[in-house]
Amino acid sequence: MENVTLFGNANQTLSIWTDQSIEYKVVSVLLVIIICGAGIVGNVMVILVVLTTKHMRTPTNCYLVSLAVADLIVLTAAGLPNITESLFGEWVYGYGGCLSITYLQYLGINASSCSITAFTVERYIAICHPIKAQFLCTLSRAKKIIVMVWAFTTLYCVMWFYLSDIEKMIYNNITLSVCSYKVARRYYKPIYFADFTLFYVVPLLLASVLYGLIARILFLNPLPSDPKEKAQTWRKGSCAESKKHTKNSSFGSTAASRRQVTKMLAVVVILFAFLWMPYRTLVVVNSFLKLPYTDTWFLLFCRLCIYLNSAINPVIYNAMSQKFRAAFRKLCNCRPQSSQKPATYSMALTYSVIKETSNGQSPDHFPTEMEELPGPTNEFLPGRNKISYKESSMSDSTLTTA
User: Where in this chain does the entry annotate a coiled-coil region (predicted)?
Assistant: First the structure.
């Protein structure tokens, strides 16, 4: 990310330096504090929810944790230094701060782009190739991919330790320090276009193609049957009528859940494209201009779009995922104790949920609508640690004849 755009304006006309207006300082500091503060709290909640809630540890959510960590780095390394730049008009963190903060900015940006690409590919395999997904879309493989993503971006961004430097800007009335470049700005054009291509153009083109294929499967054609789900469905119950009813309801809830998850992730990608467009476009345009375009208010707009992109994802999860919404409420202890009443599930549904979770199987592949509902637990079934097959068969027939 271009230092001039984020930190200070490397003013080329070194005449009389004038400080930013009071209006600009108030607006920039206030908006940055609100957006970055909310984003930091939201992304920390996403990480805590997934790490502390067993049924939330799915491959897709692992990629969302990676994205949340990257967004936290962007908000802290790019957002918070913007406050001091607005207040003091210069770089106040010294040479070490210039190198490390510039490195962290690019690390967070590139890691977030790679995380978005990773969960896009994971969704494509899960929806369009469900048989392969049994082996490819697993929790362990997701963790390995995340490690590879961070290893790649960590090594790729090391170059900024050698490309960034403190520069003294000498005006007629003052001398200021800015975090800038070691060599002439024009030599950075290949780096700008490499970043633009690898971490913006390619992810968006890939996401457009893959989400188009996903939409064709989800909304135009019936979903391919999942062999694992089919086997689990036919193992439940003793009557043919009960088997058929369970199969149809399970398939419908799975399809609805897949659509909902895919819509949520597609919204994340779309916002990534639009909120990063002003800054990416500015960098490309400035690469061809002799004097870069550095209008103060437009630069602030580009910055705020970047910060908003890193802060808005937890809001999307809360708005579009019932499972995330319930987990957020539980983390904040927002649900009153009186509202935790036993769910009016039939014994068949109770047995189904208990059997799924007792096997140690987390919804690695396809979270279902059943999993998004707060299922019955031991506190609702005191003294009922195990349910025999005989009991479940009786409840199945009761459900069928009811």
Answer: none
CA distances from 277 to 201, 205, 286, 303 (A): 10, 14, 14, 11
Report how far apart the first and last C-alpha atoms of the chain are (Å, whole number): 63
C-alpha pair distances (Å), 256 with each of 131, 245, 268, 344, 372: 19, 17, 19, 22, 11
pTM of the model: 0.74
CA distance 50 to 48: 6
So where are the chain's domains? 22-165+185-224+256-333
- Tally of CA atoms within 13 A in the half-sphere of 83 that contains its CB: 15
Least reliable range by pLDDT among 174-178, 225-229, 311-315: 225-229
Whether 347 contacts 391, CB under 8 Å: yes
Element (H, E) at 99: helix 94-128
Selection from 231, 268, 276 nearest residue 250 by Cα: 231
3-state secondary structure of 160: helix
Second CATH level (architecture) for the domain 22-165+185-224+256-333: Up-down Bundle (1.20)
Can you tell me whether residue 269 is helix, strand or coil?
Answer: helix
User: What is the rounded distance in angstroms from the CA atom of residue 209 to the CA atom of residue 201?
Assistant: 12
User: Among candidates 78, 75, 84, which has minimal Cα distance to 102?
Assistant: 78
